[in-house]
Each structure stands twice: as structure tokens, then as C-alpha cells.
């Protein structure tokens, strides 16, 4: 396919089918008007799980799907004639037509073959792609190069399976060789019964902070597994999910320690992209707590919460830039605002002392001071900003950053380009120890967590 002109208006639809859900992204770019955005919509397929044996995915399913999509996006996508022949409307202008449609199907998606065949039967104008390990390796290598990241890891936290994909820049005599080291680690439950039974693992209660009877715990977990809600407000259920996520991450780390243990400490430019329905339910602070404690992470990295899977959907467009054949997109549309994670090197146990002090500065607001105590897990939300925001801080009590041992930190948040919306300072003493019971964990979590 010919590459696109950067000066041409363009719109493109990407449909990603993964983890019993359909993510649709309609991307639009008008370089001359400096206008670029991605519209998103999600369809939960779990409601259809009792009907999937009846072959829900037919040509008619996709006819209805795209018809409904026009209303959701307020965008003319399809043309129909009197004979009910269905074609995609060529791109004319913003809100009118698309230049192409791509469907990506995760290779672990239930009824993969039925879905694949139904798309093929529906239209020859749809480009079909499979999301497998080879695709993820190619995506990570391209993103690492494009974004100048030395160590890039994707952690996909889905209910039934946790997956980690990682690429590291290969160095020789202090210089990059142009090659990458790729690794993958996975943990998967085959069905609902085995996943529900996993709650009986004795390690599960070791991470809980709520004292629950075995019957109540099993019932609570079973209802969550069966219903799979996208939003959870019940604090007890959130605690159960956090415990599950921590155990899943720890199990992956235990079985793949050599692939994971150096993350955050070996390079200066590290990033973690977090996806999956578990991270969506737990939200940022508790998700990061389960990751840091489960994977036993230290050091520093940027954490991107990609809840809408835009990185997978349009990551290749960002990588290819002006050589793209679907749509030309910039970083600001695809990579979300991120969290700076700082887990320093603290040699001695220090209790209840200020171990870091800093300030936040911007032309649009007054200067704000902040400080962080030792032995705390502090999640600092930054103020919303339209201008550049400068965050500077200094370590105390001998604490230093990884891997260079710096005592001073400075970060710049640039809206629309590389925007920081929060910073996590984890200054708890290592190793992190849970237990021996729920009451002890409740006390520990209360003393650790400081969410502003």
C-alpha cells in the first residue's frame, strides 16, 4: 500500500477484539488544522457468553454493529443501496467516511475462528490482523525505538490471564547495538471453575486486609468472576481483587524471575504499559501496589495506563509515522498521561522521617511544596495544567535513585506530548512482608498508603 501524505485529512477505524470485549477506535487527523483525536467505544461480550455456542458472530452481527457505530460516533461510516448491499463510505471529510477499517483479534479470544471467519464473510474491505506473541514483540521493539525507551514492558492484567512482554536495548561496551532482547511471561486459567477455585489457595488470605470467612470469600469472588463488572465500588471486593492481582503477579515473577527482576534498575529510560480489566477495576494506586509487590520491583519507570488499548490498536501507526499506510498519528493521541514511579535505594531502615522534599512549579499556578515520609507508599496527584509543569525534588537520609545514585530529581510535564498526571513514591523498606493475618495487613496498608 502507498504511504500517506502528511498533509491529507484522514480517518481510520480500528476494531480490537480481546478478552471478551470489542474496542473500537476511530482516529481522525487534519495536519493543516492541527486537529487530531481518537473516538473510542467499548462493547462487553460477556453478556453474550451463554449465546456464543449459537454462533452470534455472523454477517448480520457486523451489519448491526457498524450501523450502531454510526450513531455512537455521529459519523457516516457505511453506504447501503436498495438491495441492502453494505459498503464502507469513502472518506470525504471530518464526520463523513473512512479511509479504511482494520479488525484485530487476540489469539486468546474465545471463539477466535468463528469471529475471524465472520469478518471475512462480512467484507473483503476489512483488513484482518491477529494479535499474537510475534505481533507484541514487533510492537514493543518499534515503540521502544520510536519513544527512545531502553527498557519497555507491557503488563496485561486480565481476569483469566496475566501476560508480560518485555524488550530491552542490547548494549555492548556502553553503546547500543541496535538489537533488542525480547522475553514473555504468562499465567492463565482455563475456565471459570478453575479461576473461582484459585481463591482457595492459602496464599490468597495472606494478602487480604479484610477478615472474611471462607464461604463469604468464595461467594464474593465467584460473583465477580461470573459477572465481570467493569466498575467496582465495594471496598471488600476491591481488597479481594487486589490480593488476586498481587498473587498473579508474584506467581509470574516466581516462575520468570530472570526475565523481570532487573526492570527499573538497569537503565535510565524505563516504561511500563498497563492494560487489562483488573487494572481498570483497581485504578492506578492499588494496581501499582499489586504490581510492585507482586513483581518485587524497585528503581524508577514511567507507568502508562492504557485502559482503552490504543497502544495495541494504533501503536504501529505511531511507529511508522509518515511511512504509515493507515493514518498518521502523533504520540499525544496514543500514549496516555502517565505516572512517574520512584522506588529509591534506601540502605538503612528509617522510620517516620522526611526522606524527600520537592516542589511543583508552573506559569499558570502558584508554587506548591510537597514532602514524602519514609516507610510510606505515597501517590501524589498533580494539578491539571495547560502549560509546562516542572517537578523538582531532593532525597534526604542517604536515599538515592536507581541506577545512577542521583540525589536530585527533576521532571517536566508537557501537556499533549509527554504529560505526567501523578507521581508514586514508594519508600517502604524492602523486602515487603505481608501477613501473618488480615488484621496485620490492615494495619500495614493503613501505615503504608498515603493517597493525596
Describe the structure.
This protein folds into two domains: 122 residues, Nucleotidyltransferase, domain 5, CATH 3.30.420; 318 residues, no CATH class. It has 452 residues and is an alpha/beta fold. The model has no long low-confidence stretch (mean pLDDT 91). The protein has twelve helices and 20 strands. Helices cover 30% and strands 32% of the residues. The strands form four sheets. Strands 10-9-8-11-12-13-19-16-20 form a nine-stranded mixed β-sheet. A five-stranded mixed β-sheet has the order 3-2-1-6-7, with helices on both faces. The chain is globular. The longest helix is centred in the middle third of the chain and has 21 residues.
Fold topology:
Layout: E1 10-18, E2 21-30, E3 35-44, H1 59-73, E4 78-80, E5 86-88, E6 101-106, H2 112-122, E7 126-131, H3 133-146, E8 151-157, E9 161-172, E10 175-188, H4 192-197, H5 202-207, H6 214-227, H7 235-255, H8 257-260, E11 270-275, H9 277-295, E12 299-305, H10 310-320, H11 331-334, E13 338-343, E14 354-362, E15 365-373, E16 377-381, E17 389-395, E18 408-413, E19 420-426, H12 438-448, E20 449-451
Parallel strand pairs: 1-6, 6-7, 8-11, 11-12, 13-19, 16-20
Antiparallel strand pairs: 1-2, 2-3, 4-5, 8-9, 9-10, 12-13, 14-15, 14-17, 16-19, 17-18
Helix pairs in contact: 1-2, 3-10, 7-9
Amino acid at each position: 500500500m502507498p504511504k500517506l501524505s502528511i498533509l491529507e485529512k484522514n480517518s481510520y477505524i480500528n476494531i480490537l477484539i480481546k478478552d471478551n470485549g470489542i474496542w473500537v477506535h476511530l482516529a481522525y487527523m487534519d495536519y493543516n488544522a492541527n486537529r487530531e483525536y481518537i473516538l473510542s467505544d467499548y462493547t462487553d461480550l460477556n453478556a453474550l457468553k451463554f449465546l456464543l455456542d449459537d454462533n452470534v458472530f455472523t454477517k448480520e452481527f457486523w451489519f448491526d454493529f457498524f450501523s450502531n457505530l454510526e450513531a455512537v460516533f455521529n459519523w457516516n461510516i457505511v453506504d447501503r443501496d436498495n438491495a441492502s448491499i453494505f459498503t464502507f463510505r469513502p472518506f470525504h471529510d471530518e464526520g463523513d467516511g473512512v479511509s479504511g477499517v482494520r479488525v484485530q483479534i487476540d489469539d486468546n479470544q474465545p471463539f477466535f475462528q468463528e469471529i475471524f471467519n465472520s469478518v471475512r464473510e462480512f467484507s473483503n474491505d476489512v483488513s484482518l490482523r491477529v494479535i499474537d506473541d510475534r505481533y507484541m514483540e514487533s510492537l514493543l521493539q518499534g515503540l521502544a525505538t520510536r519513544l527512545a525507551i531502553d527498557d519497555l514492558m507491557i503488563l496485561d492484567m486480565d481476569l483469566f490471564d496475566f501476560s508480560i512482554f518485555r524488550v530491552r536495548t542490547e548494549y555492548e561496551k556502553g553503546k547500543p547495538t541496535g538489537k533488542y532482547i525480547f522475553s514473555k511471561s504468562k499465567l492463565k486459567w482455563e475456565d471459570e471453575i478453575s479461576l473461582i477455585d484459585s481463591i482457595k489457595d492459602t496464599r490468597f488470605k495472606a494478602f487480604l486486609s479484610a477478615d472474611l470467612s471462607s464461604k463469604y470469600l468464595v461467594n464474593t469472588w465467584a460473583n465477580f468472576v461470573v459477572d465481570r463488572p467493569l466498575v467496582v465500588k465495594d471496598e471488600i471486593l476491591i481488597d479481594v481483587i487486589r490480593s488476586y492481582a498481587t498473587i498473579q503477579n508474584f506467581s509470574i515473577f516466581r516462575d520468570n524471575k530472570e526475565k523481570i527482576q532487573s526492570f527499573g534498575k538497569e537503565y535510565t529510560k524505563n516504561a511500563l504499559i498497563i492494560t487489562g480489566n483488573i487494572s481498570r477495576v483497581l485504578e492506578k494506586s492499588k494496581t501499582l501496589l499489586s504490581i510492585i509487590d507482586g513483581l518485587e520491583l524497585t528503581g524508577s519507570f514511567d507507568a502508562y495506563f492504557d485502559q482503552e488499548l490504543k497502544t495495541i490498536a494504533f501503536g504501529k501507526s505511531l511507529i511508522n509515522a509518515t511511512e504509515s499506510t493507515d493514518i498518521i498519528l502523533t504520540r499525544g493521541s496514543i500514549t496516555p498521561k502517565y505516572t512517574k514511579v520512584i522506588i529509591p535505594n534506601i540502605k538503612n531502615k528509617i522510620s517516620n522521617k522526611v526522606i524527600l522534599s520537592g516542589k511543583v512549579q508552573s506559569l499558570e499556578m502558584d508554587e506548591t511544596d510537597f514532602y514524602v515520609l519514609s516507610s510510606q507508599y505515597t501517590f501524589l496527584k498533580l494539578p491539571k495544567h495547560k502549560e509546562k509543569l516542572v517537578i523538582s525534588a531532593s532525597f534526604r537520609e542517604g536515599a538515592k535513585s536507581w541506577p545512577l545514585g542521583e540525589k536530585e530529581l527533576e521532571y517536566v510535564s508537557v501537556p499533549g506530548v509527554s504529560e505526567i498526571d501523578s507521581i508514586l513514591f514508594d519508600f517502604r523498606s524492602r523486602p515487603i512482608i505481608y501477613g501473618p493475618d488480615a488484621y496485620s495487613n490492615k494495619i500495614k496498608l493503613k501505615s503504608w498508603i498515603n493517597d493525596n
